[in-house]
Amino acid sequence: MSAHASPIRQWIAPDRNTFETQIAPLGCPAWLRGVVDRWPCVRAGGAPAAIRAYYGQFDRGHPVDLAVSAPAHRGILSYDESLTGFTFERRRAPLGAVLALLERLDTLTDPPTIAVQSVLIEEALPGFAEQHPMPLLDAAVKPRLWVSNRGIVPAHFDDVENLACVVAGRRRFTLLPMEQVRNLYVGPLDHTPTGVPVSLVDFTRPDGSAHPRFNEALAHATVAELEPGDALYIPPLWWHHVQSLEPVNILVNYWWGGSIGDLEKPQTSGLDALFLALLTIKDLPVAQRQAWREIFQQYVFQAHGDPVAHLPAERQGIAGPLGAALKRHIKDRLIRHLLR
Q1: Which residues neighbour 27 within 8 Å (Cβ) at sequence distance 6 or greater?
Q2: What is the reported pTM?
Q3: Nearest Cα to 151, choosing from 73, 260, 35, 44?
Q4: What angle separates helix 48-56 from helix 95-105, to the nearest 10 degrees?
Q5: Per-residue CA distances from 148 to 162, 267, 318, 335 (Å)
Q6: Cα-flanking dihedrals φ and ψ of residue 120, to 5°?
């Protein structure tokens, strides 16, 4: 894999102004070296015993969800062979017990994979966020915790901005632009391991006979192997494959925007629109599908400029600027039609 992928552009300890004015506007992944290397958790070290001791001072026994995968699955948290189930089971345990288990698993030659994913830090580790402020973002963006031993999260995408900070262990990220969806052999859209579509390709052992177009995807891939203190900026809708490389790996990430970035006001997502389009457009005759493509190009993607610029502002309706009232109007209309 690494022989094909090119390195991600690196920035050395950028400040917030640089991030907001030079990095994020590019709309490309960025490797931010040393952004959080002064965080106390980074300086505590990456040995399993040291990690358990450090995080134990914040742990109040809050139970967390975790995925457990048998050694036979090689750490890949994905579908089983039938595509009806997954290679892992969901369990629940206090975070301190998970860290103690990871320390014990470090002594095994072929351990199961254990992964805690997307836990709100303010719930699992009260007081941690105050001692580990994120210098590039507003304090309102809530940090989340990811803990695992060696394992793999298949290529997937989110519709949010993502800043992922490695604080213990190492993680290898392989990223691809959305247009490579055609070459990634995506699993069922409505039955996914974590709620978002994932690639069926094993990036570590690609099967050329089953997935012959994957080499084309790799030609467009970029890769970064993050050390403790590094961060990775992942723009919305970029595919990312994540490989955890050490006996204990801890990542703190921040999501903002999109459907899940605002915890108080979750939004509908592009996937919702895709599902509705699959319901209403996918099975139309070819000529009609092509006609609807032109309509979407005009009104949604605005390929030819503002589609309602010729109308008075007060008569642009839902194709003009969307305020709260118009958004409510659209939702009410959809609810009425879908419930018929």
Answers
A1: 235
A2: 0.93
A3: 73
A4: 170
A5: 19, 29, 45, 41
A6: -65, 125
Looking at residue 112, the DSSP 8-state letter turns out to be P
Domain coordinates of the chain in residue numbers? 6-256, 281-338
**Structure tokens of 187?**
């699993």
Q: For the beta carbon of residue 294, count every other beta carbon within 10 angstroms.
A: 10
CA distance 144 to 255: 8
CA–CA distance, 238 with 161 (Å, rounded to integer): 10
H/E element, 325: helix 324-338
Please report the DSSP string for 208-272 in residue order. Answer: TTT-TTHHHHHTT-EEEEEPTT-EEEE-TT-EEEEEE-SSSEEEEEEEESTTTS-SSS----HHH
User: Rounded to a whole number, what is the largest CA-CA distance in the chain?
Assistant: 71
- Alpha helical stretches, state H, 270-323: 270-280, 286-299
Q: Domain 6-256: which topology?
A: Jelly Rolls (2.60.120)
Could you read off the pLDDT of 223-279 as tens digits, one per residue? 999 999 999 999 999 999 999 999 999 999 999 998 887 766 667 789 999 999 999
What does the block give as tokens for 15?
A: 């400040």
